[in-house]
Fold:
Amino acid sequence: MSQLDLARLQFAMTSIYHFLFVPVTIGLSLLTALLQTAWHRGGRVEYLRLTRFFGTLLVINVAVGVVTGLVQEFQFGMDWSGYARTVGDVFGAPLAMEGLAAFFLESTFLGLWIFGWDKLSKRVHLATIWAVAAGSALSALFIMAANSWMQHPVGYAIDPSTGRPQLNDIWALFTNPVFLRGYFHVLLAALVTGAMVMLAVSAWHLRKALREDKGGAESKDGAADKDGTENESDAQTAKDASSAFRLSARLSLLVLVPALLFAMLVGSELGVTEGKFQPMKIAAAEAQWETCQPCSFSLFQIGGGNDDQTPTQILEIPHLLSLLATNHWNGKVLGLNEVNSQYEQEYGPGNYVPNVFIQYWSMRVMAYLAVLALLVGLWGLWLLRRKRLTHSRWFLNAAVWAVPLPFLINTAGWLLTENGRQPWIVQGIQLTKDGVSSSVSTTEVAISIVAFFLLYAALAVVAAVLMTRHARKGAGPTHKDDQPAPEMTY
Structure:
C-alpha cells in the first residue's frame, strides 16, 4: 500500500472509532437532561436515579471520546500537512470555534454537573446538564460546517499570490445547503443512537427483573426459603428495576421512533442536495453507470462495481431512485460515465469515480438497518400502548441485541459521505493525493497505524468494561434518593 492508502486508512480508522462516541454523547446528554427535568418538575425518585445512572454512562463516554478526538486533530499536521497548508485559512476557522467555544462550554458545564449535586440549587444544576447538551450539539455544528465545506466549498476566494482559498464570508459556511441538511441529519442520528442505547440498557434490566420475578414466583410455589426474606428481597429488586427502567424505556421509545422518521426524511433531502452538488456521489451510491430517466432503485444486485459496469442480477423498484435523488417521479439521474466526462473537461484528464462497491453497499446497509431499527421501535411503542412492554420477553431480547444497529448505521453513513467525495479531499479544489504530508514516509505511517490500533484497542477494552459494569449495576438508590422530593436540598 502507498503512503496515500495508509494515510487514508489511518484517518478512516480513527474517525470511525471516534464517531462511535460522538452520537452517544450528543444523544445521551439530551436524554439525561430530559430525565433530570422530569425529576425537577415531578419529584419522582425514579427519575433521579435514572438521571444519575445514565449520566454516569455519559461521563464515561465523554472521557473516551475526548481522547480519540484529539488524535484526529493531530493527524491533520502529521499525515495531511498538504491539506492543512492549502485550506487551513478556511478549515481552521470552524475548528477553532469548536475548540474555543463548544468544547469548553461542554466540558466546563459537565464538570459543574458532576460536582454540583450537593452545591448548586436544583434549578441551576438542571441548567448545567442542558448546557452540556447544548455544548455537544454546538460542537457538532462547527465540525459539520467544516466537513460540509469540503463537500461543497462556499464563502471563499482564491488568493492570487498563494493560489490557496481564503475565507471571505463565514456566514456562507453556516448557510451551506449541504451543512444545513447534514447537521440536522447528524443530530437526529445522535438522538437515535442515544435512545437505542438507553432502550437496550433499560430492556436488559427489565428482562432481568422479569426473570427474577418469575424465579421468585416459582420458588414460592416450590421450596421457598425458611423465612422468605430472600424471595421478598428479589421481588423488591425486580419491582424497583421495573419501576425505574420502565420510565427510561418509555422515554427512549418516544424519542427513537420520531427521530428515526425525521432522520430518514432529512437524509432523503440531503441526497437530493448532494445529487445537485456531488452527482458523482449519488451515481456511485446506485452503481449507475449510464444516465437514466426515469431511474429505478436497486434493492440488490451482483456486479456493477468499478471493474464491472453491467450487473448480472438486479432487484429494483421503478421510479424510486428518481424520486429519492430529484424529488420527481421521472427525474433524471446522471450516470458515472457522463459525470466523469464532465469532470475531465472541467478539471483535466483522470478517473474521478470513487469506490463503487463501498458506495453502493454503504447506502444499503444504512437504509436497511434504519428500517430494522424503526421496526424495533414501532414494536416497542405498540407494546407500550398495550401495557405489555415489561412482560414481552421477545421484545426485551430484541431491544438488547439491537444496540449495535445505530453504530453500524452511522458508520455506513460516514463511509457513504466520505468515500463518495473521492478522489477529492475538497470537492473541486484539492485532490486527496495532493493533501498528504511529503515529509512522512510510508513506514512511519504504517508504524503509527499499529500504534494507534493498539491504543484504541486498549481504550475499547477500558470503555467496554467500565460502561458494561456500570450498566449492569442498575439505577439503585443513592445516599439521598429515598428522601421525599420536598426535602431534597440539591
Notes: The two ends are 58 Å apart (CA to CA). The CA atoms of residues 148 and 179 lie 5 Å apart. The beta strands are 156-158, 165-167, 297-302, 313-317, 424-426, 430-431. The first strand starts at residue 156 and ends at 158.
